[in-house]
């Protein structure tokens, strides 16, 4: 009987120990998210130099809890659901407009921002956030065509319509994005990337469906990897993704078609329910420093909105028209505007039908 009692006591002690251990672990996990010296950063994948985050923590003491998303819509849904209180995130232009109009963003306290004079005025006061009430410019770029110079010449692809040529059968990779792929199709028909006409969208969907014989794959971030490995001759993708692929394969080049394209702007914003706003301001200010912005631009491969950082970049990078386009090219570019739920769904449905038609 004594042995039984001792065994029971031992079991109880073990259970209590496990409960206590779990409580300590849970509290530790809670501190990671809610502790005073943390920053919960929700960003696109591979969209900041990890060495900068290490430097930021060393300089400020803020530990960065870093999570990633692969689309504006995925980020928007997570923020709106409110399950996790992120302190800083990175929406594109039209999504800043959407999130601010729905009350999901905190107005910026300009007294807590430093280094804003380093931001090029061209990227300030954009239509999606007049007066930069909610957003600080981060990176910008274009949608264009990445191609293998040994297999394709620039004149063969200098307008979007040329992608429909039979000579490119199963040679094209497309980025997995409804707005971008339907947008390029609309441009090829002389329409706006923000078209909200039912007949125009139907016509674009019809034309896009005829591109499928030329499409080898519709992919996301891995497009740059496949192109660098020579898996396709042509890729419709973003300028920064193209830059990363070109760094891996010298046979690749990038251009913006002469009939125009999308110019996008990614921005740092603070969600309304952020618990560590001081940490968010600290990282924004850290990234506004020219030397940090330069390092970040060279790692990420996208064009910087920081004029101080731009001045520090190598001359060959600053003069590359594929990534820092001429005024003429810039004049031909369009910025996405916010769609309501109906039109977002219309575009998504049209693109989904295209993808499943293979």
Please explain how this structure is put together.
The chain is α/β, with parallel strands linked by helices and 358 residues long. It folds into 2 domains: 7-140 and 265-317, Periplasmic binding protein-like II (D-Maltodextrin-Binding Protein, domain 2); 141-263 and 325-356, D-Maltodextrin-Binding Protein, domain 2 (3-Layer(aba) Sandwich). It is 43% helix and 17% strand. The strands form 2 sheets. Strands 4, 5, 6, 7, 8, 9, 10 and 11 form an 8-stranded mixed beta sheet that branches. Strands 2-1-3 form a 3-stranded parallel beta sheet, with helices on both faces. Helix 5 crosses helix 6. The radius of gyration is 24 Å and the shape is globular. Residues 1-32 have low confidence and may be disordered. Keywords: Periplasm, Signal, Transport. It is found in: Periplasm. One of its GO terms (cellular component) is periplasmic space. Spermidine binds at residue 94. This is Spermidine/putrescine-binding periplasmic protein.
Average pLDDT works out at 91
* Overall form: globular
Structural class: alpha/beta
Cα-atom radius of gyration: 24 Å
The CATH topology of the largest domain is D-Maltodextrin-Binding Protein, domain 2
